[in-house]
Amino acid sequence: MSKTPTALTLVAASGVPPVPELALHEVLDRLGPSVFAGLLDADGTLRYANQAALCAIDITPDQVLGQRFDATPWWQACDLSRHRLQQALVAAARGEASRFDVRITTVGGNTLAMDFSLLPLFGPDGRVIWLIPSARDVSERDQAQRQLQLTRHAVEQSNDALFQVGPDGAFRDANAASCRLLGLTREQVLRMRVPDIDTQVDDSQWPLRWREMCDRGSLRFETNVRHRDGHEIPVDVSVSQVTSGEETFAHVCIDDLRERRAAERRIQQLLQFDELTGLPNRQRLLESLDAMLLASDQTAVLVLELDRFKRVNDGLGMHIGDAVLLEAAQRLVVAVRGVDLVARRSGDEFVIVVPGPTAVPVALAQTLLDAIARPMVIEGHEIYMTCSVGIAMAPADSDRADTLLRRANAALHQAKLHGRNQIAVYAAAPHDDDPARMALETALRQALRNERLELHYQPQVDLVHGRIVGVEALLRWDHPTLGRVAPDRFIPIAEETGLIVAIGDWVLRHAIEQAAAWQRAGLPPLRTAVNLSARQLLQPDLARRIEGLLAATGLDPRLFGVEVTESMLIGNFEQAVQHLQALRAMGVEVSLDDFGTGYSSLSYLRRLPVDVVKIDRSLVPDVTAPAQAVSITRAIITMAHQLQMKVLAEGVESEGQAALLAANQCDQMQGYWFSAAMPAAAIEAMLRDGRQIDPVLLDRRARQPTLLLVDDEENIVAALRRLLRAEGWLVLGATSAEQALQLMARHEVDVILSDQRMPGMTGVELLRRARVLCPDTVRLVLSGYTELQAITEAINEGAIYKFLAKPWDDAQLRSHLRDAFALKEMADSNRRLDLEVQHANRELAELNRRLQALLQAQRAQNQREVDSREATQELLDALPVPVFGVDDEGLLVFVNAPARTLCDADGDVLGRPASGELSDAMRRALEGGSVKLTLAGRRFRALCRPLSGNARGCLLVLLPQAGVRA
Ligand code: C2E
Ligand code: CA
Ligand code: CA
């Protein structure tokens, strides 16, 4: 019989009797509440169980003692455990100890994972006399292990490339994404060092980089890494130091910037060129025209509009309309010279810029007219188009791009008035005699005078909590006969005529008064923003006036904001930036309006003193938008966040858009979906009612975990629903990809399980799309068909987390889905943490900025005071009149040059009591009144002038008297 080393032998070395049974009981009871222990006969009958074991299943000793141990209630919950116990009992009878994990269910219904052992106890004769079972709770250990596994799994599955790097620069660990990034196997990566892949660090620089990381605890930088093929990949690297025991290593997360760079390039492209025709757009046109005007003495601008284009669109459909535009664009490009510029300004409007002698444009215009007039054949339709052209010329008509374009427009208007298919050259000032426009201008002046303008307010809603956080003031004008005139129509007129300055003042005053009234009424804090115009930004005292209005109404500057566009800043960048900085220093929020329609260079954005970027509604995507559009918006959001700016999306018209924006970390939104602009009273009612976005749409915490099932066979969806009923998940079902996308817009989905073969869109395609729309979902394919190629690709690029085969095993499927939810939960909590950190960082940066601005203002103020004090002293020294300065404690603090000569005093007198240095008569003068006195043979009248302002005390001035010598 073999005895295991752990078995005990109760052998009395010197004839002492074996440990009595009662003493054993006592030992077993003292093992503490988490250790269950007992005593069995050699045949497995329970003789004793300690308190901890009895309590766990709430049982009295007489209910179990005397029973066979494997028949006691501890073993009822788990057949496997009981089976193993039976084997252990047999082994113990042979004198062998056993140890294994068991599961025990307590009275509270908890299942405990326990480390169980069964030890035989030997009598003096070497025979087994007792068995000691004991069990220790290891649930926590198990849980920690599971957590660890889950974390490992998450690291491995993560789309971010993650590495561990040692002090020598060698890679200690690398996940799958990092191997994919570098095109290497894990083994290859683990044989390399950082200098082997980072193009900006070589061996000699590595120790420096390591030291820098250790000094700072973390690093963040951009660099390039080398792929196995030799090409370089731009990446964003975050490194943090990890110390575990004695060891220090670096945790490195590498973010592939290629997609972001591509999105940036794409944004640039979108912002400068028209999507349909590829021609330069309005913005690019303005820039190029500016440059061409500078470069050439003479330039002609032709504005060309297709006649009655709308009829094509309405009659034959948009796609034919698009084809016509494309054809027209191509004909124009062919008709002009290489140096000329063709741009698409809007729908059916093109602009051609012709640098060079004036004779050319009219001839060219005729060529263009002819080119467009040739019949077009599109999808079997024969289409006849004509166009009208207006021409203006620099420098005769203007040398400024915007004026030139306006004048060419005016000419175009004339051409259309004359029956279209015409050319008109700008002559005189058609503006001034455009009667409709003049009437509108007069009416606008009257409206301003008679207070017929009104402000409406559009709510701006926070996408984290769903609450209204601000409003944008928007002008409304009801014309007595025309009805409501859109600001887009009257604001340009106001801008051209200069009326905008008076209107802008009116808006500022009214909006600030309204905001102050809301604040006084005790409504929840709400920021009111007004739109500024370019002319207002040119006023040197704009910031001071706003400060004055805020002070006069008592409105907290943090409850006020201004909106400006990039194009406004261009004219006078320095001054505009100064205004904005001054406003921000007060706490006023600055928003950059219409982002995405102007210059919108992301690098330019860095230089602007801006708190919020308002994404123009043309860049606010919907769930049905192409994936490209979503990634552009996301790139803008990411970039703005990196610059510590908030992002507000404009023109949100559907719940789908709002959900998509929230999922992509957009901070705020405004748009018709939540509310159009409303009169002040309606806003107040909304605030009192606490109107907000349904938190279900936004809040990721309080909601039920959500599973989306997609299969074109309805009975499969139904079967899966039944199978998963008890899991406590919200289960959504869709029978097509289209329907699935709609559901994703309305619900925040955590896990998607999709069939592969479906009519329309395959499962892989759907999940690719889901990845772009809601990158955080965990996506699985359940399919009978193993289209290995497509599925492997999708898994490799991170679109799919797992592939499961049909027909499925119920238990396995359930467990895969549980894993998926656990993964999602972990990713969510990481992201929440990340968001909170980002949020805190932004707030901190904001605080710092404000502090910096305050400090700067204070420093400037101090300097001004020093400067003015010095200037005053110089001035007083130059006066031919003796002057003494005495502070409020009676000390001499200032003596000008004539006074020093008169009293024959040197610098030492400063700081001494005036009473000791001045004559009696002068001291009397200090006490008030005017005293006559004679000093050094000259007669003076001594006058005392108290000082006001920051300095306290008085000035004693000795005015020389006529008669001079006594
Ligand atoms: P904006 O600053 O971009 O203002 C947003 C415009 O989008 C407003 O048009 C608003 O009513 C509209 N809008 C809001 N939500 C949605 C939506 O979901 N879908 C769509 N399609 N549109 C939406 P509004 O009030 O006609 O103003 C037009 C423009 O006139 C403003 O554009 C702004 O540039 C100018 N404007 C308005 N009020 C003032 C003002 O007091 N001063 C100055 N200088 N300009 C103003
Ligand atoms: Ca605006
Ligand atoms: Ca806007």
CATH level 4 superfamily of the largest domain:
EAL domain
CA radius of gyration: 42 Å
Sequence stretches where pLDDT stays below 50 over 5 or more residues: 1-18
Helix count, DSSP H or I runs of 4 or more residues: 35
Strand order of the largest sheet: 19-20-22-23-24-25-26-27
**Ions, cofactors, ligands: which are bound?**
ligand C2E, calcium ion
User: Biggest sheet, in brief?
Assistant: 8 strands, mixed, barrel
Note the overall shape: extended
**How confident is the prediction overall: mean pLDDT?**
84
CATH topology call of the largest domain? TIM Barrel
Beta-strand proportion: 15-25%
Class by alpha and beta content:
alpha/beta
Give the terminus-to-terminus CA distance: 139 Å
Q: How many structural domains?
A: 6
Percentage of residues in helical conformation: 40-55%
- The CATH architecture classification of the largest domain is Alpha-Beta Barrel
